[in-house]
Amino acid sequence: MARDGARDGHLGEHIETDLLVIGAGSGGLSAAAGAAQLGVGVVLLEAGRMGGDCLNFGCVPSKALIAAARHAHAMRTGAPFGVAPAEPRIDYAAAMEHVRRTIAGIAPHDSQERFEGLGVRVIREHGRFIAHDTVDAGPFRITARRIVVATGSAPLVPPIPGLRDVPYLTNESLFDLRERPEHLIVIGGGPVGLEMAQAHVRLGARVTVLEGVEALGQDDPELAAVVLERVRAEGVEIVEGAMAERVTGGAGALSVHTRDGRRHDGSHLLLAVGRAPNLADMGLETAGVAFDRTGIEVNAGLRSTNRRVYAIGDAAQGLNFTHVASYHAGVVVRRALFGLPARATNRHIPWATYTDPELAQVGLTERAARVRHGDRLEVVRARFADNDRARTEAETDGLIKVMVVRGRPVGASIVGPQAGELIQLWALAIASRLKMSAIAGMVAPYPTLGEISKRAAGEYFSPRLFENDAIRRYVRFVQRL
Q: Which cysteines share a disulfide bond (predicted)?
């Protein structure tokens, strides 16, 4: 519903709607689409690109570049399969064109035209709260019964002396390159830093990763070590305990000086030290919405301190993953539109690092599970070296580790081929509170990597079955009948 804004002193259109969604990334688009298809009036604000960070600067382009790098790596590593290794002739600009085409192929699904076709009113303006239920956006004033803040996040730029005086890359500018970096220095040894480091070394660049503490420090150290060993073996220099102290130089010839007194020289600098929520100049204080540098404060129902305002995805305090934003959108739709007591939880949220080998996690790591469950915890392992499909592919590095309490998995960690795919079964098991017996009873096609999950479940039951004297006596008794 729209009315003349001149009556309330605003020169422009005043829109009244059921739901206002601020941000057209994965979470905002999911919320807007779900609400519109339920017949709810929806206005969607987006000042930047439709599809947000994931489509334009994050998940999609990075995985497209990783795919290009994988093809280059395959040419060098065919000897075990009887294929003569060859050094690939790499066209970096063409690899980046593959990235661009991939984005363009997905973009129509997230486009303004598609969402307008669903009945969403899309306004390409920045929104700022002027009241608890009202947002100004360019020439528009929008009053909504409920508002969802889904503004996502941006790459964090640390206050390193000299950084502002040299050209640097983030995930928002990296994919604009068309000339391969001669020597890429990456500040940050987390998932993004290592993914891009391995991709670029496979595409022919020299790469140095500087990590202030431990690389992949948020993951299980036993499994992270498998990834780091492989990435180093491929030629990436990973320097841990290397806190950047200052940056000097200029375009094409820059240096990062670390607190240990070392200097690391390179041609390009990529910042991969984390993300910060996009909440600037939104007038959240005016709306009575509490927030800090980590995001908007929300309860389990994702409602902020303003009962009309919800926050989802990177805009809310919590895990910063695209799939979390989409999950949050579903919670908000159920809660705000259906009045259901939906609650968000991180207990069953998986995540993956798309290095080679991949690294994936859901639920508690072994360290966290031991703190929470103590002696009740059992940890079972299965190795890819014992998986027949992994052997056919010569991808035997890695393992699955499952944390079990009273017969139910409370966490799973996987490092190995297609770990991001394999973790999904364990995400389902934890979300549905399945027992290990459900995994053990699953029949997996042979030979598949998925059999490793069944093997892990078998490792849980083996001592109970084959090392149990009572069961042995019962079997002997049955044989006498």
A: 54-59
